[in-house]
């Protein structure tokens, strides 16, 4: 079994809302997989289906080789979940909540618990009522990471954490990943996903629109090019794959589809080029390209959506 | 900064928030009262008719239980008899809800925190809430006086009537102020205050139902039990009868005591916290917590202890009445009929029937407790930690089962303790029912409470978003059909719907295991169906 999670054609409706509309997702064992999408895209819904908290209307989902709905209890011994919104019991202390979640999951590593309490600088003797949002988040993270499980399902786990704690979180994810655990990480923080994830899936309106390594994703989209020559650059607008061209005599700025980059470079070679900078898109740009509120821009690049 | 700084601003804020709610409550009460008074004038123009009506009412302890005691035969007295109890309850509930709204609910939603930061003294919130609510009661009192006078009734009695309602409302404002300091959630504070109103109503109802009828067949003198109840005081002032204004000092004294207590509590706690100042908790969990059952018990522990203490106190009070029931009312047919009806025994020995009826009341309380515990399932699910718990290796049935165990176990403990306390108090005043008999009588109610619990689990599994409404509605229906079905004269088929109808009325009749086993089976089937439904559905926020 090399896939920790595999999902095919998942559909989930809430009344008339179609939250998932044939979603696909494959997370290989040992991978740290980023799960991106705008608000309401269906990330939380997907994770809840994977945990057997929601029942899918149709489609196939497998988690650690089991059916997340039917085998929920045995599967839950082997995974840890950090919900997007961490709700705790106001009267219990943070330490009690950590022990409770750990124990209900099947036990937790005491030494690891202390280490993480220290790393995340959480006072476990405080009542949960008195914790800030970030501190509640830490309770859930410590409870999850102190468990020796195979799979971590994390729903926006760092919303509310300060930059120092963000770093502690990244360190912790690298540690569990190094010992072979799989991580599925839903997030809105691009730098975090770029830093941690070997693979990324981007979803929109309940459908996967992109999935692959960051390098693959970049390959599928456009590169930004800025070029300056000693003479006016002409003819760029007629080349295939060139978009958003701003030509200003000897200076031009445009985006080009990765597949057409060689042709464009050949064309540029016929001018006396002084400087040329090209930059692969950041994850944020990839994301924006799909979700920026310019639907016509998305329509221009049908190839971008054809990766699944 | 003084502790009261900013009170004025908070008063204006509270008045703004309540600009619809309080006027509706006050005007609504006045309109109901005016209509009620007009109806009396219309229906009973002559004194003879009124006397006949009141004599009829006076022979029915059920009516006395609900309405209080008649104070005379003139128009005002009859209007008073028909409306005062209801108006007192309205005033009390208006006050408790408003006080909680402007104190604990503010704190819970974090509004108070925002206000607290804006240079407001620590006592200002409570002071403002009390100012608004006491003011509202004054306005209510005046509105009720206006309603009675405008209907054409004498002003003198109207003033006593209005004053009785106003000071009763104020006293319960004080009770709610204390509750708001003791409890952490607005829900719990409201439940505490509303339960206080309910118990006060019930206590004076018992005192009135057991009251002694005067020779004219109209007036009834309540027993001392009515004097224990703050709602009873408003009635004991006897508006439109031989008025006793001094009785109205009692609610005022209660108000003063409660306000003093509430401010003392404010001074001892942090914003958002309850009575016990926030001590650090344990840094690690004890073994006992580390299971679904341990968790469920921990979540319900405080309120369970509260219910147990309440049951013992109530049991002691009821037990000490057995003697009185026998002595004072041995010859009163109406009372023994009522007790027989409440207990479902037909007519039996008065004391036995009385205790059987009271065991039904304990059964009702145990069912209330079970409903309250089981509704926690829903609050844990909707915006609570249930999502995280059910994502651990805890199965859904096990999670529900843990809460169900707390509900049934707690209900059993309530019934045992209530029965034992009743028996001990009865023995102390020379009764001979026996502690063990009454413990058994209490436990005989458990299958009915379990059935109610099973119903709540069923609704939780099938219709989670409506479980709060349906659970309480189911409880009210089963209590109305079961406990009061005979009093109301409901057909047997309707009464059979309620589990309480099937409970043997021990000690008035012998224990019969058949119906109890049947109820347990029904309860188990309901709970199993509820769990099965829950396991098939989505977790729904
Ligand atoms: N219980 C529910 N009932 C009805 N609609 C729901 C429910 N849960 C989710 N939805 C809807 O399903 C869609 C997907 O929601 P979901 O919470 O999965 O989005 P998300 O990708 O996690 O968004 P975010 O980034 O804001 O967390 C939304 O349109 C949401 O309104
Ligand atoms: Mg989400």
What does this structure look like?
The complex is a heterodimer of chains A (308) and B (541). Helix content of chain A is 33%, strand content 30%. Chain A contains eleven helices and 13 strands. A six-stranded mixed beta sheet of chain A has the order 5-6-7-3-8-9, sandwiched between helices. A four-stranded antiparallel beta sheet of chain A has the order 11-12-10-13. A three-stranded antiparallel beta sheet of chain A has the order 2-1-4, with helices on one face. In chain A, strand 11 (242-248) and strand 12 (251-257) form a beta hairpin. The two termini of chain A are 21 Å apart. The model of chain A is unreliable at 293-308 (pLDDT under 50). Chain B has 541 residues and is an all-alpha fold. Chain B has helices at residues 7-17, 21-43, 47-58, 61-67, 75-102, 104-108, 111-117, 124-150, 155-182, 186-209, 230-236, 249-266, 292-319, 322-329, 333-343, 350-381, 386-390, 396-428, 435-443, 446-462, 467-482, 485-488, 492-495, 513-536; strands at residues 212-213, 220-221. At the A-B interface, helix 2 and helix 3 of A face helix 13 and helix 17 of B. The site of magnesium ion has 4 residues of chain A, from helix 1. Chain A: Belongs to the ABC transporter superfamily.
Biggest sheet strand line-up of chain B: 1-2
End-to-end separation of chain B in angstroms reads: 43 Å
H/E element sequence of chain A: EEEHEHEHHHEHEHEEHEEEHEHH
Name the chain pair whose interface involves the most residues. Answer: A-B, 37 and 33 residues
Largest sheet of chain B: 2 strands, antiparallel
| Count of DSSP-assigned helices of chain B | 24
Unique bound compounds: adenosine-5'-triphosphate, magnesium ion
Derived structural class of chain A: alpha/beta
Shape label of chain A: elongated
What is the mean pLDDT of chain B?
86
Helix coverage percent of chain A: 25-40%
Strand content of chain A: 25-35%
Report the β-strand fraction of chain B as a percent range.
under 5%
Strand order of the largest sheet of chain A: 5-6-7-3-8-9
What is the subunit arrangement here? heterodimer
- Total count of strands of chain B: 2
The ordered H/E elements of chain B are: HHHHHHHHHHEEHHHHHHHHHHHHHH
Transmembrane segments (chain B): 20-41, 84-103, 124-149, 155-176, 188-207, 245-266, 305-322, 353-375, 400-421, 433-460, 467-494, 514-534
Protein name (chain B): Exporter of polyketide antibiotics
Keywords (chain B): Membrane, Transmembrane, Transmembrane helix
Domain ABC transporter (chain A): 5-230
């Amino acid at each position: 079994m090399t896939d920790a999670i595999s999902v095919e054609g998942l559909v989930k409706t809430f009344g008339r809302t179609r939250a998932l509309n044939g979603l696909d997702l494959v997370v290989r064992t040992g991978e740290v997989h980023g799960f991106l999408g705008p608000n309401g895209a269906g990330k939380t819904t997907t994770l809840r289906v994977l945990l057997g908290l929601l029942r899918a209307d149709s489609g196939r989902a497998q988690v650690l080789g089991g059916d997340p709905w039917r085998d929920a209890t045995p599967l839950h011994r082997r995974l840890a979940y950090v919900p997007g919104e961490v709700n705790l019991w106001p009267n219990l202390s943070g330490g009690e909540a950590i022990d409770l979640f750990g124990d209900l999951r099947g036990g937790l590593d005491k030494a690891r618990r202390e280490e993480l309490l220290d790393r995340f600088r959480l006072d476990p003797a405080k009542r949960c009522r008195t914790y800030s949002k970030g501190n509640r988040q830490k309770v859930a993270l410590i409870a999850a990471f102190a468990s020796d499980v195979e799979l971590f399902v994390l729903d926006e786990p760092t919303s509310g954490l300060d930059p120092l704690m963000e770093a502690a979180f990244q360190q912790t994810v690298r540690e569990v990943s190094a010992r072979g655990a799989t991580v599925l990480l839903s997030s809105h923080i691009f730098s975090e996903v770029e830093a941690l994830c070997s693979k990324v899936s981007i979803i929109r309106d309940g459908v996967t629109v992109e999935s692959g390594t960051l390098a693959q994703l970049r390959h599928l989209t456009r590169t930004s090019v800025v070029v300056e020559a000693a003479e006016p650059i002409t003819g760029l607008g007629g080349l295939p794959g060139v978009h958003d061209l701003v030509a200003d005599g000897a200076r031009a700025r445009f985006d080009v589809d990765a597949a057409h980059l060689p042709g464009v470079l050949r064309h540029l070679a016929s001018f006396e080029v002084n400087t040329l900078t090209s930059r692969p898109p950041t994850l944020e740009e990839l994301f924006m390209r799909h979700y920026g509120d310019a639907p016509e821009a998305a329509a221009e690049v049908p190839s971008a959506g054809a990766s699944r | 900064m003084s502790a009261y700084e900013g009170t004025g601003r908070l008063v204006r804020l509270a008045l703004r928030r309540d600009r619809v709610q309080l006027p509706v409550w006050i005007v609504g009460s006045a309109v109901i009262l005016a209509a009620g008074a007009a109806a009396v004038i219309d229906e009973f123009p002559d004194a003879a008719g009124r006397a006949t009506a009141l004599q009829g009412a006076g022979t029915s302890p059920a009516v006395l239980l609900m309405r209080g005691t008649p104070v005379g035969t003139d128009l005002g007295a009859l209007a008073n008899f028909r409306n005062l109890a209801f108006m007192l309850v309205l005033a009390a509930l208006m006050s408790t809800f408003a006080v909680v709204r402007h104190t604990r609910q503010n704190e819970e939603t974090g509004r108070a925190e925002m206000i607290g930061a804006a240079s407001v003294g620590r006592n200002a919130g409570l002071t403002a809430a009390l100012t608004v609510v006491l003011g509202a009661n004054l306005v209510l009192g005046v509105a009720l006086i206006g309603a009675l006078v405008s209907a054409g009734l004498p002003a003198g009695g109207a003033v006593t009537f209005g004053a009785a309602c106003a000071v009763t409302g104020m006293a319960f404002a004080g009770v709610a102020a204390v509750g708001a300091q003791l409890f952490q959630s607005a829900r719990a504070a409201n439940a505490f205050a509303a339960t206080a109103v309910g118990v006060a109503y019930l206590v004076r109802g018992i005192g009135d139902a057991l009251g002694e009828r005067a020779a004219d067949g109209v007036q009834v003198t309540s027993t001392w039990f009515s004097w224990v109840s703050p709602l009873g005081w408003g009635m004991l002032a006897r508006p439109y009868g031989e008025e006793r204004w001094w009785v109205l000092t009692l609610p005022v004294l209660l108000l003063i005591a409660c306000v003093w207590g509430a401010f003392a509590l404010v001074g001892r706690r942090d914003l958002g916290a309850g009575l016990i100042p926030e001590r650090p908790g344990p840094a690690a969990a004890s073994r006992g917590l580390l299971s679904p059952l341990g968790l469920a018990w921990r979540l319900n522990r405080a309120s369970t202890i509260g219910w147990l203490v309440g049951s013992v106190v109530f049991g002691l009070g009821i037990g000490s009445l057995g003697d009185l029931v026998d002595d004072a009312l041995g010859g009163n047919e109406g009372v023994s009929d009522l007790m027989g009806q409440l207990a479902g025994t037909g007519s039996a020995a008065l004391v036995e029937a009385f205790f059987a009826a009271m065991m039904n009341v304990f059964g009702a309380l145990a069912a209330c407790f079970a409903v309250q515990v089981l509704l926690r399932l829903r609050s844990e699910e909707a915006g609570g930690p249930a999502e995280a718990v059910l994502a651990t290796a805890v199965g859904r049935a096990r999670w529900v089962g843990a809460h169900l165990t707390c509900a049934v176990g707690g209900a059993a403990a309530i019934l045992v303790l209530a029965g034992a306390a009743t028996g001990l108090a009865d023995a102390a005043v020379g009764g001979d029912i026996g502690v063990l008999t009454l413990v058994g009588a209490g436990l005989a109610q458990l299958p009915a409470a379990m059935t109610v619990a099973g119903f709540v689990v069923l609704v939780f599994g099938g219709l989670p978003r409506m479980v709060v409404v349906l659970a309480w509605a189911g409880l009210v229906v089963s209590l109305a059909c079961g406990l009061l079905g005979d009093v109301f004269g409901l057909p047997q088929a309707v009464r059979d719907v309620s589990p309480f109808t099937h409970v043997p009325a021990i000690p008035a009749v012998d224990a019969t295991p058949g119906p109890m086993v049947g109820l347990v089976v029904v309860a188990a089937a309901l709970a199993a169906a509820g769990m099965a439904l829950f396991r098939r559905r989505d977790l729904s926020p």
